[in-house]
Batch of 2 targets.
Target 1
Amino acid sequence: MKTNDTSRWERLFEAVHELSVLISTGPHREDQILERILRSSIFLLDARFAHLLLVEDDRIRRYVLSQDEPNREMLSVQVLPRTSNLVKWIQQEQADAILSPPEMFFEDEFPLGLESERGTPLSFPLRAGGRVHGVLMVFPRAGSYTAEDVKILNYLANQAAVVLEHTRLYHRLEIEATTDGLTGLYNYRYFMEALSREIKRAGRFSEPFAVVMVDVDNLKEYNDEHGHLAGSAALREMGQIMKADAREIDIIAKYGGDEFSWILPNTDGEGALTFTRRMLQKVAAHDFKNDSQRHLTISAGIALFPHDGDDPRTLLNRADDRLYAAKAAGRNQVKAPEFSISDPALFPKD
């Protein structure tokens, strides 16, 4: 049963306040925000199901919160194809209008999957920042809604859109602040912060980890011959090669200029050497544009925690010393504590 209108509006304002507190107290995952919006929708309108359809670059995500029994909620997330008709419906210009999706969406392009959800939902677009992010849909328990229901959901949808816009803006700025614009890898700032965190973590759990400094061989000559745009493209491709073969816990960063840097958590010298050897082989074998002679390679130096030091600067200096030893020894090599690889047969140029 619905509470009286006065207490329902009080609960609405409480829900909006909770959302505002979430974005004002620091970063939160988007799905936490969306779940809070759905839960408020179900409670305020005494509904059985609530949906959020969010438009992304190449897909539509649907969050569904269902309440089969009192105090029992189930959240599910589905990925829907980005069909033109569905996106067109979601992005309608009538920001304050009740959206009634054509039946075809439910039958063909928007399968709900639950017969109990059939019927026309009460729907409002989530519009903020000059665009529509998605649609909030609430399915009736009793089959119909009052004018008061419409006002409440409209207000909630408007506030939810603002919260979602702020959340996405924060994450966008966070990505820009920690990402190298050329390669899409982590940048120097993030790498240094991650290195300090990893030193503390590894020290606390008495675990080893490796720091690897990487420099591109012969990039200046390649730039001189083919131009800096070609050199930038080669750096992007190298970053993709490194990232594709790394673990989720590894930190692969663009250190600066033509240097990369890696943090390999819970990795000893043998593991770091194996990973670095594989990267050297893959880069040396890669077909960079206008580099049929395979001049573009990488050299690397490895430092180990705590063997080589227990602070960022010491570890980086040791890795950097070994990197330049590898380049001085002929390039396309890796130098590591107490062992090195210098067999050119491992890294064929032809």
Target 2
Amino acid sequence: MNIKNVYILDDRAILYINGEDAKVFLQNLISNDINRVSDVNSCFSSLLTPQGKFLYEFIIVKHKSGYLLDCEKTQAEELFKQLSLYKLRSKVEILNLSNEFVVAAFSHEKFLTFNEVKDQLGCTIKYREDPIFLDPRNKDLGARLIINLEKLYLSLKKLDLHDANPKEYYSLSHSLGIVPKDLNKLKDKLFGIECNFEELNGIDFKKGCYVGQENTARIKLKNKLSKRLFPINVINGKLHEGESIYNNNEVEIGKVLIDSDYPFALVKYLKENFNEKANFKTKDASININKPDWIKN
């Protein structure tokens, strides 16, 4: 990322969780530890099904007496409804602030020019009361600013940041192996741990119970993780959601889950039939599968 570029992520939404029970409410639901979130630190987390399957992912940022959830806009309304179902008698207020706040992303290098920052994932500071944080998943994704829409462009001017095409940011995210868009296509189709949430700092295996914790812990402890979500590149042809991926010996090694501009597949990466340097094929396409370098096994 260019140090002067900023990417306005119109596909992101902001929910606000507030109230006396907000912290306990989130702690009982999310895959990460809410105690990691403070005025100086933000975290990445997810909400899973009771069976441990993926539903929603988001970044949690401390804001005033509550928490901002930076999530994909296509998931925001359903996430709002899901959280409301869990609310029951909890003293919690859940608000959708997507019409008021916007998310902007800029480079890691620019983030390091701010006063009082630390070069650590999730490091959070305030800029005129608005949170700026280094992406808790991967430093190469840079930092984010969550700001009121009315103040956005004046603040960007003062920060000497210039609006750039967000497709550059999405392409970077895809190349890093981190899903930038179309998260609804993953819902209930794979386990949260298969989304690489452990490596992306989205799962805490030491915290207490949360929704989907039992299966997540079992897969981890019994070393049952044999499939992972990997980015794929189309060499030629066209992808179709849900279709199988084969090697040259016609052995199925994965399935396409996201078939759009930034495609991903669930890949049986520990099988002897998978060679990350090989070309693979679907019914109508020839593809490469990229194993991110931050996945060590």
